[in-house]
Amino acid sequence: MISRFSKAFLFIVLLLFLLGSIVLLHPPSRAYIDPWTGDLFGEGGVEKELQHPAGTGGKAVHGGVIMSKLGNATAKAELGRATWKLLHTMTLRYPEEPTQDQRDALDSYFHLFSRLYPCGECAAEFQQLLKNYPPQTSSRRAAATWLCFVHNQVNARLHKPDFDCANLDATYDCGCGDEPVGSSAPAVQAENDPMDMETDPSKDATTGVGMIKGGR
Ligand SMILES: Cc1cc2nc3c(=O)[nH]c(=O)nc-3n(C[C@H](O)[C@H](O)[C@H](O)COP(=O)(O)OP(=O)(O)OC[C@H]3O[C@@H](n4cnc5c(N)ncnc54)[C@H](O)[C@@H]3O)c2cc1C
Question: How many angstroms separate the alpha carbon of residue 45 from the centre of ligand 1?
Answer without folding.
Answer: 49
